[in-house]
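#onboarding

Welcome to the new folks! Below is a worked example of what a typical request in this channel looks like: someone posts a single protein sequence, and someone else replies with the predicted structure as tokens. Don't worry about understanding the tokens yet, we'll cover that in week two.

Example request:
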Amino acid sequence: MRAVRLIPARCCVAGILGVVWYVLLACVAPAFAQSLEDDAVMKRRQQGILTGMPFMANITPRTFVDDAGRKLYVAKAPARVVSLAPSITEMLFALGLDEQIVGVTEFCDFPPAAKTKSKVGYANPDLESLIALRPELIVAPREFHRATVLAKLEELKIPVLLLEATSLESIFSHLHTLGRIFDRATAAHAMTLAMRNRMAELTARTESLARVRVLYVINSQPLITVGPGSYIHQMIGLAGGLNIASAAKASYPRLTMETVLREDPEILLFPRGSVETVPRSEQEAWRRWTTVTAVRDNRLREVPADALNRPGPRVMEGLEALARAIHPEAFASEPAPGQP
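Example response:
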């Protein structure tokens, strides 16, 4: 007869318990892992709330979302970039990217080095000229958003970053985005910090003064000004002014003279610059409206268009010019920049 080996009862119990533990672990582990992932997601959300940065779980450090809501992946800092707006050109130069800039518009005249770069048009840049410059990135204003052109550039694997400045915060954001793309984050942070400090200093000069009704004249025929949704509207408020077009629906509305006469601006502001400018003859034509307070009190004032109309690193110079034009008494003891 074959001998029968008896297995102790405790071994059977241990085996059964092992199987049970394995089954429980198989069931619990995924849930535990999911819990850890959920905790991590919640932590990132909380960090987003605390820092003011949006939570985007599917955004990698080298992925960027432009002002048209388009997502771009830029694997490394581009060695060749084309700018399609003077303000963008100024930001790129301010970040120290002189060598990387290979193309700009014909209106890009600052800093002086911008004049030496290849020109690619402005409103309708030539696609062949763009491609010939072999850019690794094109940075353009949002109005450049033309489906056929973008589709062709995407087909050629040339990323396009579209920017639109609607507030001072968006200008700061653009500088930070470009800083990250080109590995110039430290320079961008230092620049925006200095700009914020200057903004606080200028705002403190005018915040206790009476608001002054202002009309910012971009064009007279037709009459075009700035409204809510434009960064210049915000700057007028920071400079101690009250924009008479504050009830307009558009960022750059057209006004009738009936509206101007009713709102009766105390100051008329005319941008003057190398490109964007209101001619003196056009300014003088306003003097026929003798019932307007600004005309009656001879408060027709020029402000630097290049610093104001270009949402870039010189925008605080524009804010100071606005504050000086609206509240000269706040700067009575200080000469304007560039004056003895």
